[in-house]
Write a structure and sequence with these properties.
Chain lengths: 139, 139
Amino acid sequence: MQKSTYNTKQKKIIYNFLLQNKDRLMTCDEIADSLKAEGTPVGKATLYRFLDSLVSLGDARKLSNEDKKCAAYQLLDKEMNCKSHLHMKCTCCGELYHLGCEFMHSVGEHILNHHQFIIDNSKTVIYGVCKNCSAKGGI
Amino acid sequence: MQKSTYNTKQKKIIYNFLLQNKDRLMTCDEIADSLKAEGTPVGKATLYRFLDSLVSLGDARKLSNEDKKCAAYQLLDKEMNCKSHLHMKCTCCGELYHLGCEFMHSVGEHILNHHQFIIDNSKTVIYGVCKNCSAKGGI
DNA sequence: CTAGTTGCAAAGAGTTTGCATGGCG
DNA sequence: CGCCATGCAAACTCTTTGCAACTAG
């Protein structure tokens, strides 16, 4: 889990919560509120500090392109191998999708070979509208 | 240019500056500082208000995923048809690249057909490292 | 016991808003 | 001349930092 020196109660709480929500991008406020609602509140400062340490260790990522002003965090699931593929986020319902198919891997190769650009999967999110939402007429 | 009611001096200044820098994603501070340096300073509040109106009119876009905490803006160039293709930004040098080739258009179709997801080109930026920077050993 | 960690509160940074003044049409 | 826009300053929001109390090892 975390590689910091001490394995505190708060870190376990935060990490477990992220693990349960590994398919979501959540802001600090959302995480703090959820933890408080679960009866295991953690200080905002602690949250920010621990999340940033997870990000710098490469265990989580931090994204801001959310129309919101605040950053969203997500655990980079090792089993799902999240670092090896891109993700799409529906701007309507917020659902996050993994793009792990063969074709999409060839996209990375195309961009590398034809555009000489190395994609950073952990910093990139493709935004758009998923089928559920476009069926409902969402934008 | 802008569809707001009055065509003021400040709006012209801001719009022309964005036009000259249409290949860059710039923060409010950068824009304000540049305009001040050019001897045509514009108030921050005016900048934020006009940029947001351009964004809601679809003439510009606002992105935040910049490691920076603040948002970056860019005019959506109609001649380049920026809304019809994706963009890549080098996290090292900041350069913005247009991905207007045929293959990349087929990516949009693949994602639509196989993942039932409609990409929003104006909200998406692919992050990574360009050839110049990887040659220099950049990350 | 000792060093890292927590959490409050204060400081910072970026953005938004209220309001009197100013300028476009 | 009326109404919208500007710009200052204050208000807000999100995030970071300082510091004393706390706790894991």
